[in-house]
Amino acid sequence: MKITMLGTGYVGLVSGTCFSEFGFDVCCVDKDKDKITNLKKNIIPIYEPGLENLVKKNKDANRLTFSIDVKKNIANADVVFIAVGTPTRRGDGYADLSYIYEAAEEIAKNLIGYTVVVTKSTVPVGTGNEIKNIIKKINPIAKFDVVSNPEFLREGNAIEDFMRPDRVVVGYETEKAKEIISKIYKPLYLIETPILFTDLKTAELIKYAGNAFLAVKISYINQMADLCEKVGADVHDVSRGIGLDKRIGSKFLHPGPGYGGSCFPKDTQALVKTAKHYGSNISIVENVINFNAQRKIDMAEKIISTLGKNYTNKKVSILGLAFKPETDDMRESPCLDIIPKLQEKNIQISAFDPVAMYEAKKLLKNIQFADSIEDCINNSDALVILTEWNEFRSLSPERLKHMKGNILVDLRNALNPDSFSGSGFNLIQIGRPKNFSQ
Fold first, then answer.
1. How far apart are CA 157 and CA 347, in angstroms?
2. Which CATH architecture has domain 2-198?
3. How many Cα atoms are found within 13 Å in the side-chain-facing hemisphere of 324?
4. H helices within 246-334, ranges in order?
5. What is the pLDDT of residue 433?
6. Which of 47, 227, 266, 410 has its CA 20 to 30 A from that of 96?
């Protein structure tokens, strides 16, 4: 079976590579010539643990190829996946579907024989039907079916999520399309992965509903953390106490500076716009969006307040710039809101991230980008942890001795408070009742 993946971004590259690992003949197609040239050289445009090796393995086995030839690879395909971007549309918050519709037009012009067209991108309800209409209008004699197969890949853990998913969701209309998609995911049947077959609109909505629910959980525990600080409780114990309830679960109950990344911000916005379009009340998600935006501003104020009244020209060291560990993705990272707020107060910023420095330099200005943790914290008045990379978790008072000040603002609760008790450092965490100082 020949699979063509339109788009070599995060979703397309990971999905295409993993399908080739399943044993299928996969070609990942993109109009970006430089990207395709680099992929042919095994130069990966994103940071994702294990992806580089998996790409090389399947390229060497001749199961995975890269091309700019859209026409040829659509014509030769049994299944065409659409994996292009659906960013938030400027000005109104709706999902920008222009790339999706462009892909549908390309598919329509080049279909030969029966083909299953699969939407892998995250798209609003009704997009599958619109894709079908576009193809029929351009190519009335085309033989095809449209399927919705949303991705559920966590950055930093994407390969594992694809190979051993919690579930696979497939929205379909004909038994023929269902049979073909079932063959593609047959390797997952062997590990008894639940595969949920639904109609197109339900599959499209499942992705948005899932991401919005996780955003709600994150915001909920952040609000609980604020309450814990006021009443003198420990949010970690609260989180564990409620997370042990199987109806709630422990995932996404970790306090922090607010959610970011490529999915939650745009998907919650798009879900709200869809609900308003259909006259449906989804105020919970609307409130979460507003709270999360304010959360980042509040965290900046929290940092500023630790510096006292004379904060001008003080140096604050930021550890972690990516929106989460194990990725170089800077999209909607909390640092993009927090750092400018600090700079408005004439606070000097040094920053370090193990992976995201290249991307961060495109987005952040007037910052000293450090080459190491030690370089970053040298002579700083305060240290802030914004991303919980593993190498930050082991920081000790001894390793921080080159700081000028003693303020540690841990916005991910990555540090062990016991390690700083009696050390002379003032450790400030989220939702915890005590600061640990000498």
1. 35
2. 3-Layer(aba) Sandwich (3.40)
3. 15
4. 264-277, 283-306
5. 79
6. 47
Q: What is the pLDDT of residues 165-178, one digit of tens each?
A: 999 999 999 999 99
Domain 295-429 of CATH type 3.40.50.720: yes
- Catalytic residue selected from 228, 263, 335, 376: 263
The verdict on whether 263 is a catalytic residue reads yes
111-132 confidence digits (pLDDT tens): 999 999 999 999 999 999 999 9
Structure tokens at 216: 């709600």
Q: What is the pLDDT of residue 434?
A: 65
**The two three-digit tokens of residue 116, written as one number:** 């299953």
Pick the closest to residue 407 from 339, 327, 316 (CA basis).
Answer: 316
Would you say the pTM of this structure is higher than 0.90? Answer: yes
Torsion, CA 405, CA 410, CA 414, CA 416, rounded to 10: 50
Contact 335, 386 (CB under 8 A): yes
Which residues are CB-neighbours of 216 under 8 A, at least 6 positions away?
284, 285, 288
CATH level 3 topology of 208-289: N-(1-d-carboxylethyl)-l-norvaline Dehydrogenase; domain 2 (1.10.1040)
Which residues of the chain form CATH 3.40.50.720? 2-198, 295-429
CB 22 within 8 Å of CB 184? yes
Closest C-alpha among 14, 47, 90, 85 to residue 321: 47
pLDDT in tens, 146-171: 999 999 999 999 999 999 999 999 99
What average pLDDT score do residues 49-73 get?
97
Nearest by Cα to 97 from 120, 72, 71, 127 = 127
300: left (phi over 0), alpha (psi -120 to 50) or beta: alpha
| pLDDT (0 to 100) of residue 311 | 86
Instruction: Check residue 436 and give its pLDDT.
Output: 45
Indicate where the chain has its CATH 1.10.1040.10 domain(s): 208-289
Q: Give the C-alpha separation, 116 to 128, whole Å.
A: 12
One-letter amino acid of 134: I
